[in-house]
Amino acid sequence: IHAREILKLRDRLNDILVKHTGQSKKKIKNDTERDHFMSPEEAVQYGLIDKVISSR
User: Fold this and answer.
1) Looking at residue 56, what is its pLDDT?
2) For position 1, what pLDDT does the model report?
3) Torsion angle, CA of 19/11/28/21, rounded to 10 degrees?
4) In angstroms, how far is the first alpha carbon of the chain from the final one?
5) Helix 2-21 vs helix 25-33: angle between axes, to the nearest 10 degrees?
6) What is the C-alpha to C-alpha distance for residues 9 and 15, in angstroms, rounded to an integer?
7) 13-20 long-range contacts, Cβ below 8 Å, gap at least 24?
8) ∠42-43-44 over CA atoms, to 5°?
9) What integer pLDDT is reported at residue 55 of this predicted model?
10) Is there a contact between 25 and 18 (Cβ–Cβ < 8 Å)?
11) Helix ranges, the chain (H)
């Protein structure tokens, strides 16, 4: 039961990421299988964040 719930939640999260990033479901699924680190600029290009605010 727990494994099934985890898979459902992962799929739901992936759907949210697809909707908000514009990435394909396949790319999101591949990128969320393991840790996927990116720079702030890469996060903007990926669609995870809108912009980077740098300190003064």
Assistant:
1) 74
2) 73
3) 20
4) 50
5) 130
6) 10
7) 17/48, 20/47
8) 90
9) 83
10) yes
11) 2-21, 25-33, 40-46
- Residues 19-54 pLDDT 10s: 999 999 999 999 999 998 999 999 999 999 999 998
Residues shown for the chain: 56
Say whether 38 sits in a helix, a strand or coil.
coil
Is 17 within 8 Å of 23 (Cβ atoms)?
yes
pTM, 2 dp: 0.80
Residue 12: predicted pLDDT: 97
**Amino acid letter for position 53:** I
